[in-house]
Amino acid sequence: MEENQTPKQDSAEQPQRPFRGLYRHVKVSVKTLDRIIIGGIAATVLLVLFGIANNGYTVTFDSRGGTDVPAQELMYGDLVAEPEPPTREGYVFSGWYSDENCRYPWDMETYQVSQSMTLYAAWEEVP
User: Fold this and answer.
1) 123 near 66, Cβ under 8 Å?
2) Which of 94, 93, 90 is nearest to 126 (CA)?
3) Is 76 in the same domain as 107?
4) Could you give the CA distance from residue 60 to residue 44 in angstroms, rounded to a whole number?
5) How far apart are CA 123 and CA 55, in angstroms?
6) Mean of the pLDDT values across residues 51-66?
7) Distance CA 50, CA 58 (A)
8) Which pTM value belongs to this model?
C-alpha cells in the first residue's frame, strides 16, 4: 500500500449508530420522545377513567311545595326533557327556573346541561 492511502476498515470495526427504530426520522432524543409517549398514554388513561367515573349529570326538580318530580340523568349537552308539571293546592305552576328566586327561567328547548343542577318551580297564587 502507498503511504497516502488509508486501509479500508472492516464494517465490523466501524462504530455502530444506536438503533432508533421509528425515532430515526425525528431530531429529538429518544429519552424525550419516550417521555412524550408515556405522558400521552397517561393522559389518555386519565381521560378514560374520568369518563367512566362521570356517568353524567343529575337534574333535580325542587317543586317548592308541589308534587314530586323525578330527577333526570343526562349527559353533557343534553336537553332536559319537560317533566309533568307539578301541582300545588291554591297555586298555578308557572315554569322552571335555574335559581331559587325564580329570576332566570330555564328554556327546556334551548338550554343544554353542562353540570348537575336543580331547577326550581315557580308558582302563582290563585286569587
Assistant:
1) yes
2) 90
3) yes
4) 32
5) 32
6) 88
7) 17
8) 0.61
The closest of 126, 83, 86 to 106, measured between CA atoms, is 83
Verify that 46 and 65 share a domain, yes or no.
Answer: no
- Our count of domains for the chain comes to 2
65-108 tens-digit pLDDT = 999 999 999 988 899 999 999 999 999 999 999 999 999 999 99
Shared-domain flag, residues 119 and 75: yes
Domain annotation covers residue 8:
no
Q: Which residue has the cell 400521552?
A: 40
Containing domain of residue 49, as a range?
A: 21-53
More confident site: 60 or 14: 60
Q: The C-alpha cell of 68 is what?
A: 314530586
Backbone phi, psi, residue 48, to 5° = -65, -45
